[in-house]
Design brief:
The protein is mainly beta. Helix content is about 5%, strand content about 55%. The chain contains two helices and 19 strands. It has a 17-stranded antiparallel sheet. Strand 15 and strand 16 form a beta hairpin.
Length: about 325
Protein backbone atom coordinates (compact mmCIF):
# COMPACT_ATOMS: atom_id res chain seq x y z
CA UNK A 1 0.00 0.00 0.00
CA UNK A 2 0.82 3.70 -0.06
CA UNK A 3 0.07 6.45 2.43
CA UNK A 4 0.68 9.94 1.03
CA UNK A 5 -0.19 13.02 3.07
CA UNK A 6 0.93 16.62 2.86
CA UNK A 7 0.05 20.24 3.51
CA UNK A 8 -1.25 22.15 0.48
CA UNK A 9 -1.35 25.91 0.01
CA UNK A 10 -3.52 26.83 -2.98
CA UNK A 11 -4.73 30.12 -4.43
CA UNK A 12 -6.84 31.19 -7.38
CA UNK A 13 -6.46 34.49 -9.25
CA UNK A 14 -8.87 37.39 -8.87
CA UNK A 15 -7.08 40.18 -7.02
CA UNK A 16 -8.64 40.97 -3.61
CA UNK A 17 -11.36 38.40 -4.31
CA UNK A 18 -8.92 35.53 -4.84
CA UNK A 19 -9.74 32.27 -3.07
CA UNK A 20 -7.14 30.74 -0.78
CA UNK A 21 -7.16 27.29 0.80
CA UNK A 22 -4.71 25.70 3.22
CA UNK A 23 -5.40 22.04 3.87
CA UNK A 24 -3.96 18.70 4.87
CA UNK A 25 -4.33 16.69 1.67
CA UNK A 26 -4.05 13.04 0.65
CA UNK A 27 -2.42 11.93 -2.57
CA UNK A 28 -0.44 14.87 -3.95
CA UNK A 29 2.51 12.67 -4.90
CA UNK A 30 0.80 9.26 -5.09
CA UNK A 31 -2.76 8.18 -4.41
CA UNK A 32 -3.11 6.66 -0.94
CA UNK A 33 -4.28 3.05 -1.22
CA UNK A 34 -4.45 -0.40 0.32
CA UNK A 35 -4.10 -3.43 -1.94
CA UNK A 36 -3.75 -7.19 -2.08
CA UNK A 37 -1.63 -8.87 -4.78
CA UNK A 38 -2.17 -12.63 -5.00
CA UNK A 39 0.08 -14.98 -7.00
CA UNK A 40 0.04 -18.77 -7.42
CA UNK A 41 2.61 -20.77 -9.39
CA UNK A 42 0.77 -23.44 -11.39
CA UNK A 43 3.91 -25.06 -12.79
CA UNK A 44 5.02 -25.42 -16.38
CA UNK A 45 5.46 -21.66 -16.66
CA UNK A 46 1.79 -20.99 -15.84
CA UNK A 47 0.54 -18.85 -12.96
CA UNK A 48 -2.71 -17.44 -11.59
CA UNK A 49 -3.50 -14.56 -9.30
CA UNK A 50 -5.68 -11.60 -8.45
CA UNK A 51 -5.49 -7.98 -7.42
CA UNK A 52 -7.74 -5.99 -5.12
CA UNK A 53 -6.97 -2.33 -4.48
CA UNK A 54 -8.97 0.36 -2.72
CA UNK A 55 -8.24 4.08 -2.59
CA UNK A 56 -8.42 6.03 0.66
CA UNK A 57 -8.10 9.58 1.91
CA UNK A 58 -5.27 9.47 4.43
CA UNK A 59 -6.18 12.88 5.88
CA UNK A 60 -9.63 11.66 7.00
CA UNK A 61 -9.55 7.87 6.74
CA UNK A 62 -12.49 7.88 4.31
CA UNK A 63 -12.71 5.72 1.21
CA UNK A 64 -11.96 7.69 -1.95
CA UNK A 65 -14.98 6.19 -3.73
CA UNK A 66 -18.37 4.61 -3.03
CA UNK A 67 -16.97 1.53 -4.84
CA UNK A 68 -14.71 -0.15 -2.30
CA UNK A 69 -12.14 -1.74 -4.63
CA UNK A 70 -12.29 1.25 -6.96
CA UNK A 71 -8.66 1.14 -8.08
CA UNK A 72 -8.45 -2.49 -9.22
CA UNK A 73 -10.39 -5.72 -8.93
CA UNK A 74 -9.42 -8.56 -11.26
CA UNK A 75 -8.37 -12.20 -11.50
CA UNK A 76 -5.56 -13.20 -13.86
CA UNK A 77 -4.02 -16.17 -15.66
CA UNK A 78 -0.63 -16.01 -17.32
CA UNK A 79 2.18 -17.88 -19.00
CA UNK A 80 4.71 -17.61 -21.80
CA UNK A 81 1.91 -16.41 -24.08
CA UNK A 82 1.14 -13.38 -21.93
CA UNK A 83 -1.46 -12.58 -19.28
CA UNK A 84 -5.26 -12.30 -19.29
CA UNK A 85 -7.04 -10.24 -16.62
CA UNK A 86 -10.80 -10.26 -16.03
CA UNK A 87 -12.47 -7.44 -14.11
CA UNK A 88 -11.66 -3.80 -13.29
CA UNK A 89 -8.20 -2.70 -14.36
CA UNK A 90 -6.18 0.26 -15.65
CA UNK A 91 -6.62 0.99 -19.35
CA UNK A 92 -3.81 0.57 -21.92
CA UNK A 93 -3.56 4.36 -22.23
CA UNK A 94 -2.89 4.73 -18.51
CA UNK A 95 0.21 2.51 -18.75
CA UNK A 96 1.64 4.56 -21.64
CA UNK A 97 1.25 7.80 -19.69
CA UNK A 98 2.38 6.39 -16.35
CA UNK A 99 5.60 4.97 -17.80
CA UNK A 100 6.30 7.80 -20.25
CA UNK A 101 5.62 10.71 -17.90
CA UNK A 102 8.53 12.37 -16.06
CA UNK A 103 6.26 12.58 -13.00
CA UNK A 104 4.77 9.09 -13.34
CA UNK A 105 1.26 10.61 -13.26
CA UNK A 106 2.06 12.08 -9.83
CA UNK A 107 2.64 15.60 -8.45
CA UNK A 108 1.52 18.84 -10.10
CA UNK A 109 2.09 19.07 -13.84
CA UNK A 110 1.70 15.36 -14.58
CA UNK A 111 0.60 14.02 -17.96
CA UNK A 112 -2.76 13.12 -16.41
CA UNK A 113 -3.72 16.80 -16.31
CA UNK A 114 -2.60 17.44 -19.87
CA UNK A 115 -4.50 14.43 -21.24
CA UNK A 116 -7.54 14.98 -18.96
CA UNK A 117 -7.40 11.23 -18.35
CA UNK A 118 -9.30 11.51 -15.04
CA UNK A 119 -12.09 13.86 -16.19
CA UNK A 120 -12.54 11.78 -19.35
CA UNK A 121 -12.92 8.57 -17.24
CA UNK A 122 -10.39 6.73 -19.40
CA UNK A 123 -8.14 5.73 -16.48
CA UNK A 124 -9.82 2.39 -15.70
CA UNK A 125 -12.53 0.16 -17.16
CA UNK A 126 -15.09 -2.15 -15.55
CA UNK A 127 -16.19 -5.57 -16.80
CA UNK A 128 -13.03 -5.82 -18.85
CA UNK A 129 -11.21 -8.55 -20.73
CA UNK A 130 -7.58 -7.39 -20.62
CA UNK A 131 -4.51 -8.85 -22.32
CA UNK A 132 -0.83 -8.09 -21.64
CA UNK A 133 1.65 -9.57 -24.12
CA UNK A 134 5.08 -10.99 -23.24
CA UNK A 135 7.96 -8.66 -24.01
CA UNK A 136 9.15 -9.06 -27.61
CA UNK A 137 12.01 -6.91 -28.93
CA UNK A 138 11.62 -4.65 -25.86
CA UNK A 139 7.92 -4.09 -26.69
CA UNK A 140 4.79 -4.91 -24.67
CA UNK A 141 1.29 -4.77 -26.18
CA UNK A 142 -1.81 -4.22 -24.05
CA UNK A 143 -5.39 -4.63 -25.26
CA UNK A 144 -8.74 -4.22 -23.49
CA UNK A 145 -12.32 -4.93 -24.42
CA UNK A 146 -14.81 -3.84 -21.78
CA UNK A 147 -18.47 -4.87 -21.83
CA UNK A 148 -19.27 -1.53 -20.22
CA UNK A 149 -22.52 -1.18 -18.30
CA UNK A 150 -23.83 -4.54 -19.59
CA UNK A 151 -27.30 -3.09 -20.16
CA UNK A 152 -30.10 -5.51 -21.01
CA UNK A 153 -32.11 -2.70 -22.65
CA UNK A 154 -31.01 -0.05 -25.18
CA UNK A 155 -28.47 1.34 -25.38
CA UNK A 156 -26.91 -2.09 -24.83
CA UNK A 157 -23.45 -0.91 -25.85
CA UNK A 158 -23.27 1.90 -23.27
CA UNK A 159 -19.82 2.13 -21.71
CA UNK A 160 -18.20 -0.49 -23.95
CA UNK A 161 -14.51 0.20 -24.40
CA UNK A 162 -11.99 -1.02 -26.97
CA UNK A 163 -8.38 0.01 -26.35
CA UNK A 164 -4.84 -0.90 -27.38
CA UNK A 165 -1.34 0.33 -26.61
CA UNK A 166 2.27 -0.50 -27.36
CA UNK A 167 5.30 0.43 -25.25
CA UNK A 168 8.92 0.05 -26.42
CA UNK A 169 11.41 0.25 -23.56
CA UNK A 170 15.11 -0.65 -23.80
CA UNK A 171 15.87 1.16 -20.49
CA UNK A 172 17.46 4.11 -22.34
CA UNK A 173 14.59 5.02 -24.66
CA UNK A 174 10.91 4.49 -23.87
CA UNK A 175 8.14 5.37 -26.29
CA UNK A 176 4.49 4.38 -26.19
CA UNK A 177 1.26 5.07 -28.04
CA UNK A 178 -2.39 4.29 -27.33
CA UNK A 179 -5.89 4.41 -28.82
CA UNK A 180 -9.08 4.09 -26.73
CA UNK A 181 -12.71 4.25 -27.90
CA UNK A 182 -15.80 4.12 -25.68
CA UNK A 183 -19.55 4.13 -26.42
CA UNK A 184 -21.14 6.87 -24.31
CA UNK A 185 -24.87 7.63 -24.03
CA UNK A 186 -25.50 10.72 -26.13
CA UNK A 187 -27.63 12.78 -25.91
CA UNK A 188 -27.89 12.31 -22.13
CA UNK A 189 -30.83 10.11 -21.13
CA UNK A 190 -31.35 8.82 -24.67
CA UNK A 191 -31.24 5.27 -26.05
CA UNK A 192 -28.37 6.06 -28.42
CA UNK A 193 -24.60 6.19 -28.07
CA UNK A 194 -21.73 7.97 -29.76
CA UNK A 195 -18.02 7.28 -29.55
CA UNK A 196 -15.64 9.11 -27.25
CA UNK A 197 -11.95 8.59 -28.11
CA UNK A 198 -8.64 9.15 -26.35
CA UNK A 199 -5.33 8.91 -28.23
CA UNK A 200 -1.79 9.85 -27.35
CA UNK A 201 1.96 9.26 -27.41
CA UNK A 202 4.53 9.66 -24.65
CA UNK A 203 8.23 8.98 -24.33
CA UNK A 204 11.32 9.31 -22.18
CA UNK A 205 15.05 9.42 -22.85
CA UNK A 206 17.09 8.30 -19.86
CA UNK A 207 20.74 9.30 -19.56
CA UNK A 208 21.81 8.21 -16.11
CA UNK A 209 21.03 11.02 -13.70
CA UNK A 210 19.23 13.07 -16.37
CA UNK A 211 15.96 12.29 -18.20
CA UNK A 212 13.83 14.09 -20.75
CA UNK A 213 10.18 13.29 -21.48
CA UNK A 214 7.48 14.55 -23.83
CA UNK A 215 4.04 13.67 -25.10
CA UNK A 216 0.93 14.74 -26.95
CA UNK A 217 -2.70 13.66 -26.67
CA UNK A 218 -6.22 14.21 -27.96
CA UNK A 219 -9.50 13.58 -26.16
CA UNK A 220 -12.64 13.76 -28.30
CA UNK A 221 -15.83 13.36 -26.19
CA UNK A 222 -19.03 11.93 -27.62
CA UNK A 223 -21.23 14.54 -29.22
CA UNK A 224 -20.63 17.79 -31.09
CA UNK A 225 -17.73 20.15 -30.48
CA UNK A 226 -19.06 22.75 -28.06
CA UNK A 227 -17.53 24.80 -25.28
CA UNK A 228 -18.32 22.07 -22.75
CA UNK A 229 -17.72 18.91 -24.80
CA UNK A 230 -15.27 19.89 -27.52
CA UNK A 231 -12.11 17.93 -28.21
CA UNK A 232 -9.05 18.69 -26.09
CA UNK A 233 -5.59 18.64 -27.63
CA UNK A 234 -2.44 18.92 -25.54
CA UNK A 235 1.32 18.61 -25.46
CA UNK A 236 3.90 18.59 -22.66
CA UNK A 237 7.66 18.54 -22.16
CA UNK A 238 9.54 17.68 -18.98
CA UNK A 239 12.95 16.87 -17.52
CA UNK A 240 14.37 15.40 -14.34
CA UNK A 241 17.84 15.44 -12.79
CA UNK A 242 19.19 13.58 -9.78
CA UNK A 243 21.32 15.58 -7.36
CA UNK A 244 22.77 13.43 -4.61
CA UNK A 245 19.99 11.22 -3.30
CA UNK A 246 17.30 13.72 -4.35
CA UNK A 247 15.65 14.45 -7.68
CA UNK A 248 14.39 17.67 -9.27
CA UNK A 249 11.61 17.53 -11.86
CA UNK A 250 10.08 20.18 -14.10
CA UNK A 251 7.31 19.92 -16.68
CA UNK A 252 5.21 22.31 -18.73
CA UNK A 253 2.78 22.30 -21.61
CA UNK A 254 -0.54 23.42 -22.98
CA UNK A 255 -4.16 22.28 -23.29
CA UNK A 256 -6.63 23.62 -25.85
CA UNK A 257 -10.32 22.82 -26.27
CA UNK A 258 -12.15 23.26 -29.56
CA UNK A 259 -15.21 25.50 -29.53
CA UNK A 260 -17.34 27.48 -31.99
CA UNK A 261 -16.09 30.75 -30.47
CA UNK A 262 -13.40 32.97 -31.97
CA UNK A 263 -11.12 32.46 -28.95
CA UNK A 264 -10.53 28.81 -28.05
CA UNK A 265 -10.37 27.80 -24.37
CA UNK A 266 -6.66 27.36 -23.63
CA UNK A 267 -4.51 26.78 -20.57
CA UNK A 268 -0.78 26.75 -19.89
CA UNK A 269 0.51 24.55 -17.06
CA UNK A 270 3.98 24.29 -15.60
CA UNK A 271 5.31 22.75 -12.42
CA UNK A 272 8.52 22.04 -10.51
CA UNK A 273 9.03 19.37 -7.86
CA UNK A 274 11.69 17.93 -5.60
CA UNK A 275 11.73 14.42 -4.10
CA UNK A 276 14.07 13.38 -1.30
CA UNK A 277 14.05 9.68 -0.34
CA UNK A 278 14.77 8.92 3.31
CA UNK A 279 14.72 5.18 2.56
CA UNK A 280 13.43 2.80 -0.11
CA UNK A 281 9.93 3.24 1.35
CA UNK A 282 9.75 6.83 2.57
CA UNK A 283 10.08 10.02 0.50
CA UNK A 284 9.73 13.70 1.34
CA UNK A 285 8.47 15.90 -1.50
CA UNK A 286 7.72 19.47 -2.46
CA UNK A 287 5.73 20.33 -5.58
CA UNK A 288 4.62 23.66 -7.03
CA UNK A 289 2.28 24.11 -9.99
CA UNK A 290 0.51 26.94 -11.74
CA UNK A 291 -2.25 26.66 -14.32
CA UNK A 292 -3.15 29.76 -16.33
CA UNK A 293 -6.49 29.80 -18.17
CA UNK A 294 -7.34 32.28 -20.90
CA UNK A 295 -10.65 34.11 -20.43
CA UNK A 296 -12.68 31.30 -22.09
CA UNK A 297 -11.03 28.32 -20.30
CA UNK A 298 -11.72 26.70 -16.91
CA UNK A 299 -9.26 23.79 -16.69
CA UNK A 300 -8.36 22.70 -13.15
CA UNK A 301 -5.03 22.08 -11.43
CA UNK A 302 -4.49 18.46 -10.41
CA UNK A 303 -1.94 16.64 -8.25
CA UNK A 304 -1.67 12.88 -8.74
CA UNK A 305 -5.16 11.46 -8.13
CA UNK A 306 -6.73 14.64 -6.77
CA UNK A 307 -7.95 18.01 -7.99
CA UNK A 308 -7.08 21.18 -6.10
CA UNK A 309 -10.34 22.11 -4.27
CA UNK A 310 -10.83 25.65 -5.56
CA UNK A 311 -13.80 27.03 -7.49
CA UNK A 312 -12.88 27.53 -11.13
CA UNK A 313 -14.61 29.88 -13.58
CA UNK A 314 -13.52 31.00 -17.02
CA UNK A 315 -10.27 32.91 -16.89
CA UNK A 316 -9.39 31.92 -13.31
CA UNK A 317 -5.78 30.79 -12.71
CA UNK A 318 -4.72 28.39 -9.95
CA UNK A 319 -1.45 28.00 -8.06
CA UNK A 320 -0.57 25.30 -5.58
CA UNK A 321 2.30 24.32 -3.29
CA UNK A 322 2.29 20.97 -1.49
CA UNK A 323 4.80 19.64 1.04
CA UNK A 324 4.38 16.04 2.08
CA UNK A 325 5.49 12.52 2.91
CA UNK A 326 4.95 9.33 0.88
CA UNK A 327 5.37 5.96 2.61
CA UNK A 328 5.08 2.62 0.79
CA UNK A 329 4.52 -0.62 2.65
Amino acid sequence: GIIDTGVEFARSSGGPGATRVTSVASGSNAASRLGFNIHEDLGGGMYAGARLETGLESDTGANSSAVYFNRASFVKLGGAWGEVRLGRDYTPGFHVLQQGDINGLNLYGSAGTFTQLGPSAFTRSDNGINYVSPELMHTVIRATYSLGLENSAPPKDAGRLAAISAIFDNKTVLIGAYYQRRSDVFPAGSMTTQHATSTGVAGRWNLGAFSVGAGAARWDPAGPDTVTSGEVRSWWLGASVKVGVGEFRAQGGQLRRSSPGAIKPEATLYAVSYLHPLSKRTTLYATYGTLKNNHTANFRLEASSRTVPLPVANGVDTRGLALGITHRF
